[in-house]
Write a structure and sequence with these properties.
heterodimer, A: mainly alpha, 0% strand, globular, B: Alpha-Beta Plaits
Chain lengths: 449, 231
């Protein structure tokens, strides 16, 4: 083993060692917020949904906004990681695992919301098609049942996609530890010995997963958008929602990834691995998505305005110039104007610049989902039944707790598993000659030659 | 014979008195939620009287429109429900709401263009001795489910059973939901749209008639009657 490789594993395995008081304090702090959020949920179940701000006629509010938001964030991992793997972009190596972890955890959090927002959450399994003595199946026409299939498929797929390339690293930790640690990582390593056959199988499995997960990811957020576009509600019933939601999801996902990478870089001192070039590249990708998002938003708004449907135009006006206007124009500012200024000018496209733009985008994309859910429900067809919505502490606490939960899960993950794929970094630093040649052939599409 | 229960509402007769709303609350065990919860948008009225003002002061006139579940033939609330709690009854043509299948996604209420579906935010309570006046024919809805106008399905069922026992058809006007029964100006007419001879079928064909938000394609079974004003 060369000195360089040794240094590589030493830095990247360092977080797995003993932790300081600060780490425990941080985990306890986040854990408290998550516990408070769980308490809020149990309070909501105990007392009834009336403890939230949900009201007639706005029956969906913060919780559904959170649902769409977190499913959106989950698009970081797959799209970045799978696409960059497929095109064999070398700079992806230190980035992929950070991204795939976001996918797994954001999906776990987002997937909870369809249960949290139920009037009777303890009956959530009625959404699941399982054989039962009453011979009752869920209603397969309902987009909420499609959600169940989409999210569970995506979660299974992205967990596999995350787990597969972790196997060689589990084996590495196993080989360097003793006692209980050795046993646990040994189990996770699934008997990895690093034989040529095993490497080959891993490569094939990763190729298959990378290709399979992309259509799954696209379909998931399309189906989430169907929750809205299948209902005859003004500004919901739109054909643009599928691609609009997918673009927005990738947009917020990349922003989330940049924030996570910057945090890892400074906390775990990974300056050597997560370099300015990674932020520069992801920043350009973010800029592209920002433009795409702006294009979709412009399309959606312009057609509603020109269509001038009696009910649509009310929702349009109240969002553009009415009570929701401050939120709307904040969203346009942080999702479109600021990213173009910060990411479009090379001098500002630094790590700090990318992080500032990303924080704005995460906030802006949360607002976008809120502005899709609430103004439409508050301004349906009959003016007599127009309404309003403002959140109450219960759903605010649950929302805050999900952010804490995300950071907590991420912190714990980085504690127990190398957050940068060690074997992939090695493969990148010392690529075997025949591997490069093989990759090059594949890229040029000359495998059949 | 399968029925298609429907209603006609004569807007020229409606005085906006609200008797239908009160009768509906009494008949269907609809809880009143109190001042605080009502201000938070938790009031439940299976039928409501919408008020609209026309003209500029002092030339103002007020219009009333009682709105209840329109029992649509192509109801947007039905396909979106994941558990079939919102379900079309072939027997009566009504949109049934099966309370103990409902898990409270509230999707049906969002999809409903008329906003006539109501969510139970809390378990209902009645101050004593009001609990003694509950209607034993109507189930109490617990927290976390959706509820809405049933066209007083308990009365429809009772009349159907009686008619079957007497080996005859249900007569026109035999079934009267609470709102229809209590309307002092007889603005509400109820009957079977499957019977072309019934009064409600006749009114549904009236040139004064129109359906609420008909262009959404929901095929409602409530007809609103209104004379055209010639200026």
């Amino acid at each position: 083993m060369s000195a360089n490789e040794d240094r590589l594993s030493a830095t990247l395995l360092r977080p797995l060692g003993r932790s300081g008081v600060l780490w425990y304090a941080f985990v306890a702090f986040l854990g408290t917020i998550v516990a408070a959020g769980l308490f809020a949920w149990f309070f909501q179940m105990w007392r009834g949904f009336g403890v939230t701000g949900i009201r007639w006629p706005v029956y969906w509010g913060f919780l559904i906004t959170d649902f769409v938001f977190w499913i959106g964030i989950s698009h970081a991992g797959t799209l970045i990681s799978a696409i960059l793997r497929l095109v064999n972009a070398g700079w992806r190596r230190p980035v992929t695992r950070c991204a795939e972890v976001i996918t797994a955890f954001a999906l776990m959090i987002g997937g909870l919301f369809p249960i949290i927002h139920l009037g009777k959450p303890w009956l959530f399994f009625w959404l699941v098609p399982y054989p039962n003595q009453r011979l009752i199946w869920p209603n397969f026409r309902s987009p909420l049942v499609w959600d169940f299939f989409a999210i569970s498929t995506y979660l299974t797929g992205s967990l596999l996609f995350l787990f597969l390339p972790m196997i060689p690293d589990f084996a590495l930790v196993r080989d360097r530890s003793t006692g209980m640690t050795k046993k646990i990582y040994g189990l996770l390593a699934l008997g990895w010995r690093g034989t040529t056959g095993q490497w080959h199988r891993l490569e094939v499995a990763m190729q298959i997963m990378a290709i399979a997960i992309i259509p799954v990811a696209v379909s998931v957020h399309t189906i989430v958008s169907f929750d809205f576009s299948m209902a005859p509600v003004p500004m919901w019933h739109s054909t643009i929602f599928g691609p609009y939601f997918v673009a927005g999801a990738i947009f917020s996902g990349i922003a989330g990834l940049i924030i996570a990478m910057a945090a890892l870089r400074s906390v775990l001192k990974l300056h050597e691995y997560l370099q300015p070039i990674h932020f520069e590249n992801l920043g350009k990708l973010l800029l592209t998505m920002s433009l795409l998002w702006g294009y979709f938003t412009f399309n959606e708004r312009l057609t509603a305005w020109y269509g001038n449907g009696t009910s649509e135009i009310n929702t349009f006006q109240v969002t553009q110039g009415g009570s929701f206007a401050p939120l709307f124009w904040t969203m346009v500012l942080v999702n479109f104007v600021l990213p173009i200024l910060i990411l479009g000018i090379r001098r500002f496209r630094t790590i700090t610049g990318c992080v500032i733009a990303s924080i704005g985008i995460v906030i802006g994309m949360w607002l976008e989902r809120y502005l899709i859910v609430v103004p439409s429900l508050a301004h349906k067809y009959l003016p007599y039944s127009w309404g309003t919505y403002s959140p109450r502490p219960t759903e605010i606490l649950i929302t805050v707790a999900t952010f804490a939960a995300m950071i907590l899960l991420y912190t714990l993950f980085a504690k127990f598993i190398p957050i940068i794929s060690i074997w992939e970094m090695r493969a990148g630093e010392h690529p075997a000659e025949d591997l490069i040649a093989a990759a090059e052939r594949r890229r040029l599409g000359e495998t059949h030659a | 014979m399968a029925h298609r229960w429907g209603m006609a509402v004569d807007l020229d007769r409606c005085t906006g008195c609200g008797a239908c709303v009160t009768a509906c609350h009494a008949e269907n065990n609809i809880p009143t939620v109190g001042e605080l919860q009502a201000s938070r948008g938790r009031a439940m009225h299976w039928i409501r009287v919408e008020r609209y003002f026309e003209g500029e002061f002092p030339e103002v006139s007020m219009k009333y429109r009682p709105v209840m579940c329109q029992q649509c033939d192509a109801a947007p609330c039905e396909p979106v429900c994941p558990t079939y709690a919102s379900h079309h009854s072939e027997e009566t043509g009504l949109n049934a709401q099966i309370y103990n299948r409902c898990i409270g996604t509230r999707y049906c209420a969002n999809a409903c263009p008329y906003n006539v579906r109501f969510f139970d935010f809390f378990n209902p309570v009645w101050d004593k001795p009001l609990h003694l006046q509950l209607n034993p024919d109507v189930s109490i809805r617990e927290v976390g489910v959706m509820e809405k106008c049933t066209f007083c399905v308990q009365r429809i069922t009772a009349a159907t059973i009686t008619a079957e026992a007497e080996k005859r058809e249900v007569k026109d006007g035999e079934v009267k939901p609470a709102c229809v029964q209590s309307c002092p100006s007889k603005a509400l007419v109820f009957g079977d749209l499957a019977d072309p001879e019934s009064e409600v079928s006749r009114l549904a064909e009236s040139p004064r008639g129109s359906k609420l938000l008909e262009d959404l394609g929901t095929a409602p079974k409530v007809t609103y009657l209104q004379g055209v004003e010639h200026a």
